[in-house]
Amino acid sequence: MLLTPGPTALPPSVRDVMSEELINPDVDPAFADRYDALLDKLGTVFGTDDEVVVMGGEGILGLEAAIASTVEPGDRVLCLSNGPYGDGFTDFVESYGAESTLVDADYDDSLPVVELERTLAAGEYDVATMVHCETPTGTLNDLSPALDLLDEHGVLTIVDAVSSLGGAPVPTDRIDICLGASQKCFSAPPGLAIASVSDVAWDRIEARDPASLYTNLLPWHEAEQPYPYTHLTTLVVALDEALDLLLDEGLDAVHDRHREVAAYCRERGAEMGLDPYPDPERSSPTVTAFSVPGRATALQERLREAHDVTLATGFGDLADDVLRVGHMGYNADPDRVERAMDALAAER
Ligand SMILES: Cc1ncc(COP(=O)(O)O)c(C=O)c1O
Question: Domain Aminotransferase class V spans what residues (predicted)?
């Protein structure tokens, strides 16, 4: 039983649609219609009227495309961070020749808003990046204070909401480029990177001299069809089915389900004496990270071998110190999480 924080297990009907007859996305009008409907559904889940693009590639492609399309050498980008994905934006920024300023906090702390305010007062920035849910630490960031400040200073905002979209409310209407991925709370297979792009962001993208073609978002905006290259049709129909399941249940009900299952997971953890890694107030409804110093890999192996339950360990310095239960999308299910926590109780 796969209970990692993405890719998640797939609902049976999502698996089924992937065995449908293949459609040629360039010639079959049925695909174009389905694709248009998919974009509308994504607009509803993202909570925005901004244009949405669905690129063939995993989540990282969306992060890179957002930077590749909005910066050029000489631009100044402020990367706000309290986790590995927040830090990682600096690599994209620098690889496209722009200057990055990292404003960071410890991984178990909240976003450093006071330092952000000071940094914005002391210099000019073109673009700012941040992460809504830092999946590796199980932290859901409150973005509002940072978005307020960046808005006051007229800075374009890029937010990685890869592991929160579809599992928690995201303030997409306040974000210029908001990034998602198919394999997290949507519970579709990995392979599609999704971005909503504001008009202000398109203006900026149109004015850039792109250093890259394939990771540039502009062809998606300018193409006659809403996709400039042969689309990954099997993944698109899978995502479409996954979104139908989500919207049939209703976005609010889906968010409630994530909150309830996360609370259950943490209660069970507390009962067995496991400490949450981030402060419970900042714990994401989509993933729980427990602090298990020096034991994460051994526990992961034992759970897989003895119980057929696959959880995730941490990342980088936290690799062996954090064990993560992904309760997102199809896995935000009381029975599945109960089974995982029973297994953990038996092994911890
Ligand atoms: C917050 C966050 N951003 C980006 C990514 C990258 O997504 P992918 O692994 O699909 O490239 C991940 C993947 O785990 C993630 O958790």
Answer: 31-313
